[in-house]
Amino acid sequence: MTKEEVLQQLYGYASFRPGQAELIDATLAGRDVFGIMPTGAGKSVCYQIPALMLPGITLVVSPLISLMKDQVTALNQTGIHAAYLNSSLTQGQYQTALRNLIQGRYKIVYVAPERLLTESFLWAASQIEISMVSVDEAHCISQWGQDFRPSYLKIPDFVEQLQVRPVVSAFTATATAEVREDIAAI
Prior knowledge:
The protein is α/β, with parallel strands linked by helices and about 190 residues long. The chain is about 40% helix and about 15% strand. Helix 7 (about 155-160) links the parallel strand 5 (about 130-135) and strand 6. The model has no long low-confidence stretch (mean pLDDT about 90).
């Protein structure tokens, strides 16, 4: 299926918004990407479409529990198996989600940055093929960003521990020059 067919069939749109196709093409070509797009411009399409077209699983690092829940609900409603791993899950729910991840039941998994370097998540990640790590709300990487999250600085440590380096994509709505530099440095 082409990216245009995925866009049409899953999202119901006839064409991409400015910048989306270029970011998707670069990701599918195996290049890391950094997209700055206004709120509502369709950043999630830029990582969800490649996630569906790449062979393995895509991990989406996201800081917002409510956003994770909304994205996973929307994906599951369209028939795309997705899950989230964050502090809103009980220990039992978290372990079940990890088992399902290892069994290949999900194509896209949203994960809180604080979970990446936990022993259980690192073990699960070592058992699967990860095609892409996508960083949503990437401004959280920067101490200059309005929502700085120190655990975002550990994303490179997580990626380095993977057996095969996946494509890395990062997206945010706004970024000053300082924030862009911090994100690019990661």
